[in-house]
Amino acid sequence: MTELPTTGTPNPLAAGFDSTSTLEFPPGFHFGSATAAFQIEGASHEDGREDSIWDAFCRVDGAVFSGHDGSVAADHYHRMPQDVALMAELGLDTYRFSTSWARIKPGDRELNPKGLDFYSRLVDELLENGISPWLTLYHWDLPQALGERGGWANRDTAYRFADYALEVFEHLKDRVVDWTTLNEPWCSSFLSHAGGEHAPGHTDPAEAVAAAHHLLLGHGLATEAMRESAGREHRLGITLNFTVADPADPANPGDVDAARRIDGSFNRVFLDPIFRGQYPEDVLGDMAEAGLAGHIRDNDLETIAAPIDVLGVNYYNGVLVAAGQDPQGSEQSLVFASGRGLPRRSPAVGSERVQNIDRPLPRTAMGWEVQPEGLERLLLRLQDQYTGPAGIPMVITENGAAYDDEPDESGFVDDSAGRLAFIDAHLRAVHRAMERGAEVRGYLVWSLLDNFEWAFGYDKRFGIVRVDYDTQARIPKASARWYAQVASSHRVPAWE
């Protein structure tokens, strides 16, 4: 096992935390990993699977880095037993994966037995290795047939999703306890339909707010349907991605308003309907021109607020913002920017004039700031304003980093100063938040394997396990070996 380097100095990425001390997590705390179907499975047209909107998007000239696609990815479809064995070797107790709608219901028609069988075998393999399966029903791979009928901008897709969700639930509920409806609806609405960064690559704010509302509606409909069929042991939830928006000048009303707008268009537009059964009035005002309020029908908000059992928290970084940018120049995504040649615009509907301000913080290979203290603040805020009052625990369902890995002759990557230090710093932030009252029950690192990183193709690597795309060999990085120690001991060792 690779130990932390004995530098005699604290982890430089853990600013604000004492990284020279060993931390202990409670025995019931879960340590695991997360992946997504389209990013790792490959086998894009095997055993009945048909196109998703991401298969179609990959064929658009300039949509994805170097024309990469997900047809092979990490070949997990053929290597699943070996990948589960690798998880077991690393001592992981939880694995969050997504099912592919395009594989289970190709073209959103009848169920595909071979598609369902793959996930049934995956679940069995996990359980045989002592790993709890955590199933996400939607991680952005909408069947292309539904995309051609308007996708999530079409209200009917919410009902189609609920049907698909219930069918998967009925087939796997005997062995799967933890269920997530949607992963990061911000990405599949605003980033995809306003920002142009993700499939289907559109840049229409009106379409984006329709997609956001229909995704929430689909979540509520699916949760209601599964709840009627669920046993007391099942835990149903949703995973949202969050940012922490700070004003560049807290004394400047314009900057304070800019932070409010980003918080509204990124966080509260999803949190408030789920936990409070209403959209925030200021967000409805910010998105009035795009027409958010016009999509709300009778009983929608009651459905969206269907009780959940757990909130999945995805966090990568926060932002420092200021007022005053010309909306025509606001082309840089909050947390995504692939540098593609396709037209794109700000995904922050209602916040187009907000300007991002660079801070003197370390950055990952994605260009994202490393800000672990933002995760602590986020968890405490969620506990205080949303999950705590509702009596709902949180799990970190994604947190991790891409770095420019440099493998040695054997393919091993020593990422101690990058990815390992990043995970260490964020685990310290989680621990600190728990000490201050946040009810967090697990941490699932993103990601188990290097994979297809959406518009960045295979150019960016998030995995704690390196994938040699020429041979499909899996080589655990230093971060994986260290994380295995953490998972087995429930201790984050001192940096010194």
UniProtKB/TrEMBL annotation:
Its EC number is 3.2.1.21. The active site is at 398 (nucleophile). InterPro entries: GH, GH_1_N_CS, Glyco_hydro_1, Glyco_hydro_1_AS. The keyword Hydrolase applies. Keywords: Glycosidase, Hydrolase. Signal peptide: none annotated. One of its GO terms (molecular function) is beta-glucosidase activity. PANTHER family: GLYCOSYL HYDROLASE, LP05116P. Belongs to the glycosyl hydrolase 1 family. This is beta-glucosidase. The lineage of its organism: Bacteria, Bacillati, Actinomycetota, Actinomycetes, Micrococcales.
